[in-house]
Batch of 4 targets.
Target 1
Amino acid sequence: MHLPIPMRGVANLEKEIKKHMHNPKSYERVSSYIPVSAYLSDKGSYRVSVTFRDTNAFGATVKNTASSSVGKYGFIYDVRIVNDY
């Protein structure tokens, strides 16, 4: 099954987040944002974001937001993760 390119961007961002987590099994997506323009055009790039919960090194549950630019074929670049404490 093939995902639409905007959803591929979110899936790729989630994979990247999990690669750098202290405890990848604690990952829980809260929400994701994909701009409507991403579905209307196949040109250029756009940003997607994912808000998620995970556990830190002390075992506390924290909420974070990650965003990334997504290219024409769903590849991600310029990943940024912000702690939402």
Target 2
Amino acid sequence: MRLLGLDPDQVPAAEERVVWVWEANWPVFRLFTALSTQWRWFGVSGLGGGLIRRTGLDYGAVPPVAAGLEVTMDAEAWRLLGMAEAAAMEVWDAKS
């Protein structure tokens, strides 16, 4: 976990992590979690060290992953995916 930048003492046990998802949002939730390795990163190095940040999802990966999950990418699905992406980035930015 430390390799991922996580403090094991701050990560709740699996039985403590409950996520409630409205049925209408379930397909995009599945898609978002399946895209967990498809983030774009920006890195800068300098005299004081380096900076690495996520810049957003790699949207080129969305159609094939969505097709594999049989998620239709209509305008509403793109809107919900963008909302999930923005919320995740807001949380990560607050932690950095």
Target 3
Amino acid sequence: MNTVQIGSRKCLLSSPSVPHSLPLSSYTGTYHHAAYQNITVSLCNGTLVADLRHRASPVRLTFTHFSGESFLVQDRPTPSSHLG
């Protein structure tokens, strides 16, 4: 088993990991969720990200591949000084 650190917790991931079936660029685009509305996922330095600066609590989501078509999504607070 592989582990990943999420905040102060360690989570176990299956091992070995199954590769994703598409290039990361194929996962980019705008997705819609009833609660979160539109979220645009883009590729930044080889990592899938969603920049939610227009939200009441600005965050940047990072997507880390862990197996198959599954990604671990972590939020990173965006300081108000970086909102531009």
Target 4
Amino acid sequence: MKTMKWLTLLCALVPSVLLSGCAPVPTNPVSLDEFNRVQPGMTVVQVEALVGAPGQEVRRDQDPRVQLTFIALNWKNPDGSVMMTSFQNGRLVVKSQRGLR
């Protein structure tokens, strides 16, 4: 009987301990104000710090012949508004947005 109590307790505690380290997903990861503060030349780390959330990588291309890396990251809000960015060799080169407030 003691074994069943320990097993029940263990089954109840393990998921809560594992999930406690999960960061909450922001309800609106990006605003129009944050979009306006993002500037060409910023690094991915700088943009993520300004927005306060990591972007979702939607594309990555590399051309080792010319030492070129291209990364496209999006920050999408639950309402469908989105900030789209393109980084070349780690620096922001293009940004656009749709529906940010």
